[in-house]
Design a protein that fits this description.
The complex is a heterodimer. By secondary structure, chain A is mainly α. Chain A contains 14 helices and no strands. By secondary structure, chain B is an all-alpha fold. In chain B, helix 1 packs across helix 13 and helix 2 packs across helix 13. The chains are: A mainly alpha, B mainly alpha. At the A-B interface, helix 1, helix 4, helix 5, helix 6 and helix 7 of A face helix 1, helix 3, helix 4, helix 5 and helix 7 of B.
Chain lengths: 279, 294
């Protein structure tokens, strides 16, 4: 890259080198995992860095069929899909009402929704387990959706509320004078304008639900309902020696988030930083 | 507060706010109330429960494993804050430098680990740290280094070993936060500093640092509260071991509750964890100054 920059000093070269090394450390694991997933166990033992001698999808067949990864992938997908659908609906309504109306208790409700960002959520592992157990709602398809909504809502509400604040209110004012109801204004005027922010919320929510681990570990014990991160954490115990298969499972598990990131990296970075700054 | 619309009917407000409020109460408030109650009993998951007053909390006061887990949590948090916020800031400073090529490529790729699952990151690093043919040991032995430490099974270094993957994963998040505020510093200020002959070091410490203090504060708070509950990566890397040497508060809470099935004592631990975490974050906020929430 030095030929692109004219008159480069040693310090500038060093800066480039340091940053490049760090960047490589962030990408290399993914490249390595991708080609290692095509290697056999024997090849892996001989040399962990070498490229596969032939393209062989045997590991994928093994992981999808014998380690049941197709099922886990489906479970994670359903939970994430349910979560993001409900978060989009609930957070748009809440964000809209919080930004457009002034009423008693508005600030308290807003603060209440931001609770999830302040408290150490992991302290709720046992309390939530006990409650779900008492009510007999462990090990259901919707079990994880409830906590996941709660974890995603603060960021979603914050992003949508501030985005709606930035939309001029005039259109809704005249619509309201002409007898247009609140829900109609939300559906016909606000939501179409919110599309970019809704997309950000969608991606962020998908990401947190897809990656969530401790609550999935505790609230789901039935193998047929386990999600991908939990299945991955069990993998090391069951298949200690077969690293290429573990790597293959890792590759399968990161496909959705990496594809999303490749398509919308800018949006994801902006959204995560905006959400984080609130926390 | 800006302009608002006329308030709709009460019924409409209830329809809008009741469902999310109920979900929040169901997930956060009710379990907390029940656990608070269980923490004063000897309940172990069976049918019999007896109120035993503050016995669980007394046990907690003398539970050396719990205090050890708190110590580990604080140690990891200090390491991770220095690593994530510090390196995030340094790389951001590098990347606003116009002599670094491909700045956009760097920022996009350095952020990539942030979107991965912490479990995946933990597993990648178990491969890096692997005794027999892990990347790290192969690299070190190729350099001719002998006596390579046991990264994940030596109690004296394990807290450092588990902190590195956590730091590595989230540097990108802090880098982007700092880049955002560094790019907002007016060019004229930096240019006049250049004319006055300020070095890169002086520019970063004397001009950039004070101007990005608000971002620094937010980054510190985010990093502290995020790391105090750290669970996933360490669960995958060591499970808290060897022995108790990398046990953090949330991991210890998990072990007591779900391995030993001590539900009442686990409830007391949960309550203690909430209080201690809020105290530490509250204290950090005081030290850093100002309010975090409006």
């Amino acid at each position: 890259m030095s030929n692109k920059v004219k008159k480069i000093t040693p310090i500038q070269a060093l800066l480039n080198l340091i940053v490049s090394l760090f960047t490589i450390s962030c990408v290399f694991p993914i490249i390595w995992m991708t080609y290692t997933s095509l290697k056999s166990g024997k090849e892996y033992q001989e040399n962990i860095l070498s490229l596969p001698s032939s393209i062989n999808f045997e590991n994928y067949v093994q992981v999808m069929r014998n380690a049941n990864f197709g099922q886990y992938f489906y479970n994670s997908f359903i939970v994430s899909l349910l979560t993001l659908t409900l978060v989009l609906i609930l957070a748009s309504i809440t964000g809209y009402f919080l930004s457009r109306f002034k009423f008693k208790g508005r600030k308290s409700i807003y603060a209440f929704f931001m609770l999830g960002l302040v408290v150490p959520t992991h302290a709720w592992l046992l309390p939530m387990f006990i409650q779900f157990n008492n009510l007999g709602i462990l090990d259901k398809r919707v079990t994880l959706v409830l906590p996941y909504i709660t974890f995603a809502m603060p960021t979603a509400i914050f992003l949508l509320e501030s985005f709606i604040q930035s939309i001029p209110i005039e259109m809704e004012e005249s619509a309201s004078i002409e007898g247009c109801g609140v829900w109609q204004s939300l559906w016909k005027i606000i939501l179409p304008l919110c599309k970019p922010m809704l997309a950000t919320v969608l991606i962020l929510t998908f990401n947190t639900s897809w990656n969530e681990f401790p609550f999935a570990l505790v609230l789901i014990t039935k193998d047929s309902l386990k999600t991908v991160p939990v299945a991955l954490s069990m993998f090391t115990g069951t298949y200690t020696t077969n690293y290429p298969q573990l790597v293959t499972a890792l590759v399968i598990s990161i496909i959705p988030v990496v594809v999303f990131y490749a398509l919308f990296s800018k949006k994801i970075m902006e959204g995560m930083v905006a959400g984080a700054v609130k926390g | 507060m800006q302009r608002t619309l006329p308030l709709p009917k009460k019924r409409t407000m209830i329809i809008a706010f009741l469902p999310p409020l109920l979900i929040f109460a169901f997930v956060f408030i009710f379990p907390l109330i029940f656990s608070l109650r269980y923490s004063f009993t000897d309940w172990k998951g069976g049918l019999s429960t007896q109120f035993i007053g503050f016995d669980n909390y007394k046990e907690l006061l003398f539970d050396s494993n719990f205090w050890n887990s708190l110590k580990n949590t604080v140690t990891v948090t200090v390491l991770v804050v220095i690593g994530q916020v510090g390196l995030g800031f340094i790389i951001a400073v590098f990347l606003v430098n116009k002599y670094v090529a491909w700045r956009n490529v760097h920022r996009t790729l350095i952020f990539l680990p942030v979107v991965l699952s912490p479990v995946v990151v933990g597993l990648i690093w178990t491969i890096v740290y692997n005794k027999r043919n892990g990347f790290l040991n192969l690299f070190l032995s190729n350099l001719g280094i002998q006596n390579i430490p046991l990264w994940l099974s030596d109690p004296s270094i394990v807290l450092y070993s588990v902190s590195i993957p956590i730091i590595w994963q989230f540097i990108g998040l802090y880098m982007i936060m700092f880049l955002g505020s560094l790019e907002n510093i007016p060019k004229s200020i930096l240019e006049s500093a250049d004319i006055d002959g300020a070095s890169t070091y002086q520019r970063s410490i004397k001009i950039m640092l004070p101007m990005i203090y608000p971002t620094f504060k937010v980054a510190m708070m985010l990093c502290i509260s995020g790391t105090l509950k750290i669970f996933d990566q360490i669960f995958v890397l060591t499970g808290g071991g060897p022995g108790q040497s990398s046990m953090t508060m949330s991991l210890y809470n998990y072990r007591v509750s779900f391995d030993m099935m001590r539900f009442s004592y686990g409830s007391a631990l949960s309550i203690a964890m909430i209080i201690i975490t809020l105290l530490i974050t509250g204290f950090s906020l005081r030290v850093l100054g100002g309010k975090r929430y409006e």
